[in-house]
Predict the 3D structure of the following.
Amino acid sequence: MFNGILEVFLGIIGLSLVILIHEGGHYLTARLSSIRVEIFSIGFGRRLFGFKRGDTDYRISMIPLGGYCRFYGEKSFRKALDDKLERIPRVEGDFYSSPPLSRIFVSVSGPLANLIFAILIFTIISWIGYNEEYAEPRIILLSEWSDNDSTWPADHSGLQSGDLIILADEKPIKAFHELRPLLAFKPNEQIELVVNRRGQTIPIDIAPKLDEETGFAMIGVLAWMNPIVASALAGGDSRGLQIGDRIIRVNDVEIPHSVAFHKALEDADIEPVYITVLREEKEITLNFPSAKELSAGITFQLNSGRSDSLNFFQAINKGFRKTFLNLSSTLRAIRMLFIGSKPQNVVSGPIRLISDTGAIVAEGFRGGFGSGMLWTFELLAIISISLAFLNLLPIPILDGGQIVLFLLELLLHRPLSPKAIYRYQFIGTIIVILIAMAAIISDIIQLNSR
């Protein structure tokens, strides 16, 4: 219960930071454009406390999720609607009284602030470096350990369990997790893998297939992790299991890797469960009362290393590349919606986003403070990129929709009527509400199915 509350709290803090950076971009460019800011709020809903400086009310509001920036001009807009005016009255410093280019500048500045934030995060991480733990890109065929009879591209390509992937699409592969972004958005596209099989280098052509459950293209492989204990039943009864023990059998089942270990526990039909480990070249048998507790309580050793040392300019270059690579991945994820992915597997709503963000941040800190900070800021950078992309969509009421509106005003060489603006924003509000409702319903269904 406490862990769940902590994860929600961490998720809210993380998402609020990203949204505040977005709104801060709007605020700064509005001030530069001589547009008066009426309210800058941390949070939504009723004002709790704050202060007023100049024209702006800086406040903390009741609902602690993000914030907003409201410009002067709402009263003039309402007056124009009520009085059925053809034009919004011009008032110095009001949003709609400023030139269209200024409004475009303010509208684009929120997404731009999110992209700059991501670039800075990736640059700083690349510059100072970090320690990382990872599974080597040695594979297990998923079909060999799945309970269903489905086959995958890996089964037809000639890949074998134990193969070490060294190249994918001509890119060197150091860690198993590097495979996914190279394959995830390329359903049915031919990709060349190069594997090391017992000292031989073998090229293999493979075409990932779309998995509707995950929403990504997959080849059907799992990471091969040697079952060497890294931690055992934290806070529980380890029953003599020690870090460094190499698990060789569960009951009478041989254990070559971590997947075999979890599968053997899943299939264990008697309790207690007997685990045989190799410790200092001696076999030791231990017994555990619960297979389920044992499966959840053990982690296995990963490879560890230090990231490449980059100078400041190399780090900036990497920061830009990682940001636009993630932006490209977001675009490709949207594309997956049109080729068979289930929408709920590609798009997350606020409930799942908060829950997943908090869970990932909490998991990162379980590996230590440095690991936690790395996971947190990398995740916030990725969410920030997604928020920038979302807000640039040409949907009325979003920043992208507002930019379209102001570009139209530039092309027509005249202000739009208040009625036209109202209808445009009303349509956008309905669209956003429908999308939000669909996302929330999808989140509830997904979370209940976990």
In short: The chain is about 45% helix and 25% strand. The longest helix spans residues 418-449. The mean pLDDT is 83.
